[in-house]
Design goal:
- The chain contains four helices and five strands; from the N terminus they run αααβββββα.
- With about 120 residues, it is α+β, with helices and mostly antiparallel strands.
- A five-stranded antiparallel β-sheet has the order 1-2-3-4-5, with helices on one face.
- The longest helix is centred in the last third of the chain and has 16 residues.
- The radius of gyration is 17 Å and the shape is globular.
- This is Lipoprotein.
- Keywords: Signal.
- It comes from Pseudomonas shahriarae.
Length: about 120
């Protein structure tokens, strides 16, 4: 392989914002939301971020509420989040519903989620 080919491939890969989450490629936008939460500063204490999944409790089109869980020999719940796509605010609602903690996250996943929702509405 030539240097030019390798550089071209590497340059193209760098332009990709991230790998498509599995569930995003299966017709659901929730894969982006899962990756958004995994990239956040949620206090993951009992399991690595890569093992955390979301169980959507409510999605009314304006906010998404989800349970964070992981599979082991049983299933463990580690918390709850609320995400508002319009404002791109992710909240940890685990401890106090009245005073949730705002989380920071990788904005690329918010972009992916928003684009996915737009595509689903257009299609």
């Amino acid at each position: 392989m030539s240097r030019f080919f390798i550089r071209s491939v590497l340059s193209a890969l760098l332009l990709l914002p991230f790998a498509l989450p599995a569930s995003a490629s299966e017709g659901s936008c929730y894969g982006y939301l899962t990756e958004l939460v995994r990239s956040s500063d949620f206090p993951f204490q009992y399991v690595g971020k890569d093992k955390v999944n979301l169980l959507i409790d409510d999605d009314d089109g304006e906010t998404v509420r989800a349970q964070l869980f992981f599979d082991t020999d049983g299933t463990g719940t580690i918390g709850w989040i609320k995400y508002t796509p319009a404002t791109r605010v992710l909240l940890n609602t685990s401890a106090e519903l009245d005073e949730p903690v705002e989380l920071s996250f990788d904005a690329r996943f918010a972009d992916g989620y928003a684009n996915c929702l737009t595509e689903k509405q257009a299609g």
